[in-house]
Structure formats: C-alpha cells, structure tokens
Amino acid sequence: MGRKKGLPEFEETAPDGFDPENPYKDPVAMVEMREHIVREKWIQIEKAKILREKVKWCYRVEGVNHYQKCRLLVQQYLDSTRGVGWGKDHRPISLHGPKLEAVEAE
User: Fold this and answer.
1) Higher pLDDT residue, 9 or 52?
2) pLDDT by residue (tens digit) across 36-63?
3) How many other C-beta atoms are found inside a 10 Å radius of the C-beta of residue 77?
4) Cβ neighbours of residue 58 under 8 Å, at least 6 residues apart?
5) Cα distances (angstroms) measured from residue 5 to each of 1, 8, 9, 11, 49
C-alpha cells in the first residue's frame, strides 16, 4: 500500500453533457463545469503572478532603462490581467482595463 506516483489527472476540456441553457438539468455536469471554470481562472491568475514577478525582476535589473527594456513584459502582464479574477464574467471586455483607444493613441 502506498501512494500512486505521478501527477494527478485533470480533464482539460469542459465537461460533456453540460447545457448552458439549462444548467440544472444535469447536476453532475454543472458541478464539473464549475470546477472547470475555477481551475481555468486559477491558471490565468497564476500566469499573471509569474509575469508580475518577471516584470519586478526586469525593473530591478534594468534600472533607469526599464521603460524601454521591460515594455514587452509589461504589455504581456497587462494583457494577462484583463478579465482575470472573480466577478468579471458578465462585464464587457471594454470595462476590464484601460480604454483601447487611449493605449493605441500613445
């Protein structure tokens, strides 16, 4: 008797049989869908945390040149944080971050 070796297995796709029109039709599929959504949100949050650490490191290493040298990392970080988190599912993407027109004008 011992532990199973290896990594835990997760289904990476949405559950089969989930009907978004009537989510309470199949309670098992509804719970699996909720777990899938939560798992995907945690993955996005952790990716954003990793990018934030890379931006911090870049700021420290580059010093006064961080505006030019870290621009791509900062843009990746900002893109990864748009729409990530809890409670933003039903908000339009335009409300998640700074206005796209303002960013393009710069």
Assistant:
1) 52
2) 888 888 888 899 999 999 999 999 999 8
3) 20
4) 66, 69, 70, 73
5) 12, 9, 12, 18, 28
Q: Are 97 and 82 in contact (CB under 8 A)?
A: yes
Give me Rg for the CA atoms of the chain: 19
The encoded tokens of residue 13 equal 């796709």
Q: What is the DSSP string of 71-82?
A: HHHHHHHHHHHT
DSSP letters of 29-75? HHHHHHHHHHHHHHHHHHHHHHHHHHHHHHHHHHGGGHHHHTHHHHH
DSSP state of 83: T
